[in-house]
Structures are given as C-alpha cells and as structure tokens.
Write the structure tokens for this entry.
Amino acid sequence: MIRESGVSNVVGVILLLFLVMVTSAVLGLVLSSATYDAVDTTPDVIFTVSEDPYLLYHGGGDILYKNDLVFYAGGYDISDWIFLENEGNTWSNLWTEWHTGQAINISYDEYSASDLAIVALDSRGNSYLVYNGPTADPIPSGKPVPDVTPKPTVTPTPLPDASFTADLVYRGEIVPLEDISNPITYDADVYICTDPLSDYVLVYFTASETGSVTYAWSSAQSTYVYNSTQRGTWIYLPSPGVYTVTLTVANSYGSNTSSMKIDVEPPQFEATVSVNGYWSSTWNWWYGYGRLNVNVLNCSNDSTEMGVKLYSDSSMTNELELVLDTTRSKTSSGSTLWNSNAILEGDRYYYYISDYDYDTSHGLSDGYVVVTATYAGSSKVIFSGQVDIKSINSYVDAYVVGEKWKVSNIRYHGVQVFITALTGGNQKDMTVIITPMNGESAYYTENAIALWDDYRYQVGNPRDGVTYAEVIVYVKENGIIEEIYYDRDLLIPNA
Amino acid sequence: MMQKSDSGLSVAIGFIMLLMIIALIIGTWALVGVPEQTRNAESYHAIGVTNAFLDYKIGVDDLRLNNQSGVNVSMLIPAASAYSSGALRLSGNVGTLSIFSNESLLLSEVGMSRLSATFGTTNTYVGYEGGGVFRSDYGYATWVTPPMFELDNLSNDLYVTMVVPRLNGSFFVGSTEGIPVDTGWKNASQWETFSTNQTVEIRYNAKEEWDAQLWYTAFYEAVEKYENDENAGKIANVTCTPGINGNTASLLIHPVSGKIIHIHILYPEYDVDVRSS
C-alpha cells in the first residue's frame, strides 16, 4: 500500500505539472491569438458622400492605408481605379494613406461612389466591410472577399490626349481666340492683344480629354494659376510677355503633356514714316469681335499742319470715347477735347495741329499728341508721343478719294476710277499704275503727279460681258513700287 | 517524510503556476484590452462631441431664424473623455473672407470665428465655423455639415448666399468634465447685398492650411450642388471654379454678358460665454 501510495503521489504530481503546462500553453496560444486579432481590428472611420457622384470623403476617424483596403464595384476589384486627391488638388492612384477630409475619386466610368464597397484587411488577411454604397452589390456575409477576384475586362486605353484650347475672357464674356487672333507673324501659338483698360489678360483653357484622367495645369510665368481639378482652368497673364501654359493629363497608363505658347502684346501703336510720306500708325484693340484702328496720319497738303486721323471699323464701339490732347505740343492749337462722342462704326476723324511760328515751314516741326480712350467709365492713354511734321519736300502722298474707288458716270458703260494725288513739290518720278486683271489694257501715267491731279480710268464694259474687275493700284517712286489698293471683285454696274 | 516533501513541492509549484497564469491574463488584458477599450471609448466620445456641436449649430441657427434675442442656448460640451482631458476654445479670427469684383474689393476682409473642442489621444478636435461643423484628425479636416454657403440659379441669374456667424468672445478652457457654454443672439443683423455683372472672386485666407482646404471643399461641394441641381440647372456659360493656393481658398465666378451675380451675406452675431467646471 505504501509503495502504491508513493507511486500514485509521484504520478499525480507529474500529471498535475503536465496538466498545468498544457493549460498554460493553450491559454498562451489563445491570448496570443486574441492579442493579434485585437491589434488588427477594423478601423473606426466615417465616410461622407459628395455632391460629385464620383467622390467619397473620409469623414473622420482612423487613417486608412491603401494596402489594407480593397475597393469593389459591380463585383470587381477596382482598386487601381481609385484616385486620391493630393495636396495641390491633383489626383493620383499611387496614394498610400487616406486621411480625414480627403476624397477618393472613382475613375471608372461605369461606377460611382454609390456602387462602391470598401473592404479593410488586417495583416492576416481577415476582411471587414467598412463601407457599402446604397447601390453596391451585396457581398456575402462572412466572406466579404471573393476567393477569386475577377478583374474587369478593360481594353488598354492609349495615353490620354493632352491637347487643349484657349479662350479669352473679356469682361466676363468668353471669346474664342481663333476669332480674334491676329494674323501677325509671332513665334507663338496664340496672339493676344491686351485689354488697354486692364493690366492683365484672363484666359480660360479647356482640355480636350474627357476620360477618366487627372489634369495638371501650370504656367511658370503666370502669377496666378487656378490649378483646378476640372477640365478647365483660369490663368491670369499679366502683359506683356510670352507665356507657356502646360497641361499634363494622366490616366492609369501614364501621362501626356502639351504646351501652348501665348504671346501677350501691348496695344500696337508704331508711328513710322512710310516711303511715300504719310504717317501710318495703327493700334489694334481687340475686344469681342470688333477692332478699333487708330491712325495718326499726316495727309495734309500743307506741311505746317499735321492731320490726326482716327477711325473705327468696329461694330461694338458705341460705348467708346476718344479724347485727343494737344496742349502739350509747343506748336499745337485746337481744343483739347477732340471727340467726346461715341465712336461709331466707320467713323473717321481728322485733327490738325498747326505750326504757328512757321519756323520750320519747310523743315521739321513737331506736335505732341495724347490720345485717350474712355470705355465703360474707365480711361486709358492709348497713345502719347511726339509726331513730327515733315517739310513739304520730304514726302509725297497718293490715295484714292472718297471710298478710294468711286463708281460714277455710267455713260462710259463701266466703272471709272478716280485717283487724286495729294502731292506737293517736285515729285517728278512718281507714277500711278492701274492694272486691271480682266483683260483691259493697263494704265500708266509716267508723268509727275502734280498736287490734286486727278486721273480717271474706265474699267471694263458690261456690254462686253464684263461685270466685274480686278484692279490693283501701285504707286511708283524712286523705282520702288508700293501697292496702295486692290479689289479683286469690283462690281461694274450695267448702263 | 518523503511523502511530505513531495506534497509540499507540488503545492508550491502549483501555486506559482497559478500565479503565473493569473499574471499572464492580467498582463494581456492590460496590453490589449485597455488600449482597445480606450480606442473604442475615444471613437464613441468623438461621435458624442460631434453630436454636441451639431446640436449647438441647430440651437444657434434657431436663435437667428426666430429672432430670439435675450434667450441663451446652453450646452454642455463633453470635451473631456473618460481617458483624457479636453479643452474648449473660441477664436475670433481664424481666417478672413473677402469678395472681389473684377479685381476690385467688393467686400473687405471679414474675420471668421471658430468654437472648437480638442480632446483625446488622436489629436482630434471638432468645431463650429462659418455655420458648419467640422472634424479634424491628425491635421486633416472635413465638414460634418457644411457651412451656410449656397449657389442658386434663379431666373438665370446666379445667387450666392452666405451666412457668416460672428462669435463674440475669446477663451481657452480645459476641463476633465463637460464644459458649459452659453450662446446668445446679439442683434438683428441685416442682409448685405451686392449685384454685379463682372467677374467675382470669393476668397478665404486661412491661418492654417487645413482650414483653407476645408473651405475649398465647401466651395467645391457648393458648385457641384448648384451644377447638379436637376430642377433649376446651371446657367449656360457662367463658370464657377473653386481653387486653392496655399492658405487661400477661392471661388471664381465668370458671368456671361448680361448675366447678373447677386451676393447676399448675413453676419449674425452671438455672444458666447463659457465657465469651466
């Protein structure tokens, strides 16, 4: 009995120790497993929907990590089509963390945020449904992650189109640039003349690509770029200068970039003396579809007067006023308020600045002119500068009177061209050449053109079946020929 | 004798084993259970504070809408949680709101007020700003309910409506319990109205970048809501473009010729008083 008792005690202790060890091991494994699971619990997060059907906001809570998330829509894993808004409001699918307030963009055309289901994974692959949109396909309970995740069949798309267009914004109105571009040979894709009453140009750019892409606009030279998340962006371009606006469009396959060079020019006004002696200076003001030309033109036969000619061929200038100030000219006279009326289409005005002392009656004199444009209550000086008055011998001029071509005197059964030469002095070798292109013989006058000389030429004869003429008028001086007029479709009325 | 020694050894070993198991259980609970419990409590507490601010918004809006002067909205903001203390702060000028028309100042800078509670171990705080309630975690913020800023198409003219509450007072109160706040409507403020056919830019300069991002989101959502309105629809060729540049959020509105932008702004004033408990 004693032996048996001893054996049973030893066995009992060993069994007890074994039992304690097994229990401890099992308990340790259970606690370890519980610890592991507890550390990787479902993230606490709120989601907020957007007015934009393709956006979904992180509405507060834990930071979400992309590697621990799977995005489903229509039963497909569309995680690669989930873009996140980065700083600077650019979008990328290469994000890692999703913070409070940031939005994801479902860049998969067929699905919106309502179709989205988000599953969070812990480090052991356990899955938890953290968001289910109102129209999302139900995910089987207890098995939120499909064993086989079908990938959507997507035909690989080419890199996105990065081309874009530019529209000028003039006083709140969008004006397509192609309608106002000036055919001037600038080394630029687009030419814009600044609004003379403003200090900047506002251009609206629109990307051509409309697919599931991100847009990034930039202009290194611009002071302000609205780096919008949309297809379009507003960019201020202070004048003058050449600006390069760049658009980068990216999709999941890569990106494309294109640039547009924009030449912003100040109002054009260049006062130069032409070979035949008149001042021809043009300033073009583009607004809307209209154009205002301001010419300073010395077309007088009296060298002691300087004519200032302003005219508009715009149909949109009824609110425009022009004021000419000559008080700063030492040789000027006349009212400082030259024209306070609205400039109408086709208006032409002349103003003369007299040379009072005639001290340069056959030499140089000058006038100082300030032309101010007033529009919509704002004023801006559009030209100021010295305008020389040439001596009588220093220039010649020729132009066609009236509308340059005057149709009259049907007795001649055709069109008569009246040419009046406003020349002075000894313009011995000046020649007017009329070249009708309809078979008539050319007309030349090799004689010197005297002041107020009129020349007439009959172009075509309707009775001979000629109903229009194509006419070019040249002025030839000192061996240099300059074309001063052409009309390729001059109607000849029947007698 | 041998029997006694064996018996005593087994009892001692068994007792020690038992202590070890108890220590293991307590240690595991302290290591895993307590943080998880704290985390869950913080999450629920954040929801509680957010709901308190939503109630606060309803209360102060009700004062304004019913012209209830002399009546206070009294709230107990549960800033502190069971695991950490909290604080309530009223800041009078966390940013400035300006409106430009064709680059000319139409509305000079208006200070933005903010009442906010900070709490917890996750750097979370919840606040009332611009008539909306926001929540911020780890330096990123979002609107729980957006500020009172709307764009509407009425007879093909664009109407911009803003209500910018001004909270008078300045305090920063910490507490381990809830913090009582009394808010009274000060006076009957008038709507300010501007109408223009020129380009309009609504600009918010924030002192902190996350606040600018918050207002960019408000502008963006307001534009989306206006453009997606199935009843009125968006006005053709009137473009509304939200933008952000550093600490400045903006909304640029370009009307076509002949279109008018009407801007209505109301600045209700409230006196806010707080007493620490």
Notes: The two ends of chain A are 157 Å apart (CA to CA). Chain A is about 10% helix and 45% strand. Residues 462 and 494 of chain A are 6 Å apart (CA to CA).
